[in-house]
Design goal:
Blueprint lengths: L8 E3 L2 E3 L5 E5 L6 E6 L3 H20 L2 H17 L1 H12 L3 H6 L2 H14 L5 E9 L8 E11 L2 E5 L5 H14 L3 E5 L6 H13 L6 E3 L6 H8 L5 E5 L2 H11 L5 E5 L5 E4 L5 H13 L11 E5 L3 H13 L19 H16 L3 E4 L23 E4 L6 H4 L6 E7 L2 H8 L7 E5 L3 H8 L6 E4 L17 E2 L4 H7 L1 E9 L1
Parallel strand pairs: 7-8, 7-10, 8-9, 10-11, 12-13, 12-17, 13-16, 15-16, 17-18
Antiparallel strand pairs: 1-2, 3-4, 5-6, 6-20, 11-19, 14-15
Protein name: aldehyde dehydrogenase (NAD(+))
Catalytic activity: an aldehyde + NAD(+) + H2O = a carboxylate + NADH + 2 H(+)
GO molecular function, one term: aldehyde dehydrogenase (NAD+) activity
């Protein structure tokens, strides 16, 4: 992508220049320019909201089969245009080419296809007739009722930088399937593929106003969506800090909220665990998108009898991961999203060492182990880092780093492990490793976490996804995503 590549706001099926100019999008792997994104003005955001509002009633009245057909067509076009999308996605996110080509675009298509089917799912639940006695309010009689799911209305989708178009598709597809319209505000760091998705909607024949995209280099556009009385719901993925602000500001207009926020995943490794499975799962913190995953098992809580084995196994795993050019098929660990985020991650590592943690593998550019791989001169790289002798009270054990850093904490028994796992403000995704799955199931019930993996870091796409505590509000995924983007209406009548 060159500096001349045009990127414009997508509003009401038309392209327009940003009312406040443009800002640069930087390739995290090379520090080169990918292109310029449009800087939306307040009027741009207002126009996008108005377009979505104008289109919503007609889209809600559209037959579910027609909604499904449009979503299927979008899925087909996304894959037909893979050669256009993948290089752009890779360049603006810094993802390795393997992640960009296999876990970004195909997942987008899968989500549109899943919710094409979802548009056809029943939306009405009937109840048995119920005899009701006369009251001063109404005559008695045999009373019938149904609960119907209705569209929420206009949805503001504020998305994350780690998987920009995947995250957007996970919001956009179920919202549209339920009859809503959408104004999307992508993360500032990598919005270009989200903008490009507008081309797919036009080619697919989507009605004007159905999907709109506004971008900016900060938070103003997102704040305008949250504040607008014409936006009925905010779906947000990002930090807990921003989520709290959205909850506060959205309360003024009683916004419906779906928020997937931060995580600090605990991987509890019991004495009888298969260590190869545990190490592989924990190692995904390094091997999958440089740890920029909210569900990553960044805290390894290990029974003291297996502690040294796990530390040694993780050290070996980390030291063998190829770090470097994300365009190389052999690269496993690419860059993080920006220089500012690289500095933030390194700050956490430095802070952990100052608090008494032991650096086993990796480290910062200034302080690292001898076997740390040499990092490229350009790009925002952090070496896969393993910290041992960590205690539950250390900052590295409590706060979300969102980078390729794993902290290992020993425990003596189950009670201590559960206490450590629950000692953070987060509760998004935890993991249990043990030969006894019945024991794991019982322990899962005691974890204050929205998701628990037993002997695996794999997810199931139909399960409800979301967090306990400060990790979020609401659930999406599978049919739960359809529920999230709808309101329930009770309809009552008498025979």
């Amino acid at each position: 992508m060159s500096e001349a590549t045009p990127h414009r706001l997508f509003i009401d099926n038309e392209w327009r220049e940003g009312g406040a100019g443009t800002y640069p999008i930087i390739n995290p792997g090379t520090e080169g320019l990918v292109g310029h994104a449009p800087e939306a003005s307040a009027q741009d955001v207002a126009d996008a909201i108005a377009a979505a509002r104008s289109a919503q009633a007609e889209w809600a009245a559209t037959a579910p089969a027609k909604r499904a057909a449009l979503l299927d067509r979008i899925a087909d076009l996304v894959m037909e245009r893979a050669a256009d999308f993948v290089p752009l996605l890779q360049a603006e996110t810094g993802a390795t080419i393997r992640v960009a080509s296999t876990m970004q675009l195909p997942v987008v298509a899968d989500r549109f296809r899943r919710y094409a089917r979802g548009a056809l799912e029943p939306t009405v639940e009937s109840f048995p007739a119920h005899p009701v006695a006369a009251t001063p309010l109404a005559a008695g009689g045999l009373t019938n009722a149904a609960a119907a799911r209705r569209p929420v209305g206009v949805v503001g989708c504020i998305t994350s930088y780690n998987f920009p178009i995947v995250n957007l598709a996970g919001k956009l597809a179920p919202a549209l399937a339920m009859g809503n319209t959408v104004v999307a505000k992508p993360a500032p760091q990598d919005p270009l593929a989200c903008l490009k998705l507008g081309e797919i909607f036009v080619e697919a024949g989507a009605p004007a106003g159905l999907f709109n995209v506004v971008t900016d280099s900060g938070a103003a556009a997102g704040a305008a969506l949250v504040a607008s009385s014409d936006v009925d719901m905010i779906s947000f993925t990002g930090s807990t800090t921003v989520g709290r602000r959205i909850a506060t500001d959205g309360g003024a207009t009683m916004k419906r909220l779906l928020m997937e926020l931060g995580g600090k995943g605990a991987a509890i490794v019991l004495a009888d665990a298969d260590l190869s499975k545990a190490i592989m799962a924990i190692g995904s913190t390094w091997a999958f998108h440089s740890g920029q995953i909210c569900t990553a098992p960044t805290r390894a809580l290990v029974h003291r009898s297996r502690y040294d084995e796990v530390v040694a196994g993780l050290a070996q795993f980390a030291s063998r991961l190829p770090v470097g050019d994300p365009l190389s098929q052999s690269t496993v660990v690419g860059p993080v999203i920006s220089a500012a985020h690289r500095d933030r991650v390194e700050g956490y590592i430095t802070g952990a060492l100052a608090e008494g943690a032991r650096l086993v593998v990796g480290g910062t550019r200034k302080e690292h182990t001898p076997d740390t791989p040499e990092l490229p001169a350009a790009g925002f790289f952090v070496a896969p880092t393993l910290l041992a002798d960590v205690t539950a009270g250390m900052t590295i054990a409590r706060e979300e780093v969102f980078g390729p850093v794993v902290a290992v904490i020993p425990f003596e028994d189950e009670e201590e492990a559960l206490a450590i796992a629950g000692s953070t403000e987060y509760g998004l995704y935890d993991y249990l490793f043990t030969a006894d799955t019945a024991r794991a199931y019982a322990l899962a019930a005691r974890l204050r976490s929205g998701n628990v993996g037993i002997n695996t870091a794999q997810r199931h796409p139909e399960t409800p996804f979301g967090g306990f505590k400060q990790s979020g509000v609401g659930r999406d995924g599978g049919s739960f995503g359809l529920h999230a983007y709808s309101e329930q209406q009770a309809v009552v009548w008498q025979s």
